[in-house]
Amino acid sequence: MTLNLRSEVERIGDEIIARRRDFHRFPELSFEEYRTAEVIAKHLTDFGIDHQTQVGKTGVVGEISFGEGPTIALRADMDALPIQEIGDLEFKSCNDGVMHACGHDGHMAMLLGTAKVLSQHKNNLRGTVRFIFQPAEEGLGGARYMIKDGCLNGVKEIYGLHLWNYQPLGEVGVKTGPVLAAADLFEIIIKGKGGHGAAPQGTIDTIVVASQLINALQTIVSRNTNPLDNTVVTIGKIQGGDNFNIIADKVKLAGTTRAYTEENRQLIKNRISEIIDGISVSFGADIVLDYEDGYPPTINHSMPTENVMKAASRVVGKGAGSPYLSMGGEDFSYYLQKIPGCFFFIGSAPDNRDVFSTPHHCSHFDIDEKALLVGSSIFLNLVEDLLA
Length: 388
Ligand code: NI
Known about the structure:
The protein is of the alpha+beta class. The chain has helices spanning 7-11, 13-25, 34-47, 104-120, 142-148, 206-224, 262-283, 302-316, 332-338, 370-386; strands at 50-55, 59-65, 71-77, 128-134, 157-168, 172-173, 177-180, 182-191, 195-196, 231-240, 246-247, 250-259, 286-295, 298-300, 341-349. Residues 102, 104, 137, 162 line the site of nickel (II) ion (NI).
């Protein structure tokens, strides 16, 4: 595989990698990215790039202007996960129980790399590049806080990327339309009537009710949504019962639903309620649903997606456009609800290992650091095309 990296990026490649390792060593959880924000601000100052801190709580926004022209935003997320890192990387996490296990350390390093190169090449471009360093992607929706603080004001298009260990180095996942799912969560509490395990008469056995309910909920994807659409209903947690000979009076379930369209999202939500009502009547149990909307689906716009395709093709050739889709969720979706843009995936599976050996959100997560140079190079090509 040949990577056609930008020479300016290659020249500062070691720096980009060193920054990623520094962020990796000092990971911080959502909305606690204080050191992270300080380091970003320091680098931007060194590059001579104007910036603002405490945007969207702990975010940082930098900007370079090359005079009249459109404003393009590039975004990196900043937060780490509550995971204890294992393994013996020399730049292993120093913060107990916290780890950059999704690659956001690399996202910041890539964006800083692009910013540095752009700060040194002010000729031939027309317009403005805004660098959005966003906190709290992992569940708390930091993007909403950034938008509220005006990070999209005057922006024509926005671009974001994710290191992606499910793809090998040299592949870049780019696709128009939905690429990540709406990710909702729910909790169900079933209340019945307990009793002796040998005397079920007169009881309402919530374990039996839960079993019926779980099976019935699986029919939403197999029988209600269109088989040509992508949808998921998962029950990830079931809690109830005290002993082998006691009929449980209460069971708690928790789960998540995924869909690429608002229509399917609504359909799944409604069917969960209807099925619960039906099972409740059938068994006489009291069932309460608490359903919470998570991130909306991430839906790429067509022109920006073509722009990324062009830029990525120059860097990875035929590796661009491998159509990776995921039912994961991303709060980049909030930006794409406001303005056109594209979110794409940079193949980063570590050398000589298969693409499932180091999945995201696991305690031994690591990347092929050459992917960082791929991401920075694509961002650079993109800016040059858009602000030519
Ligand atoms: Ni992530």
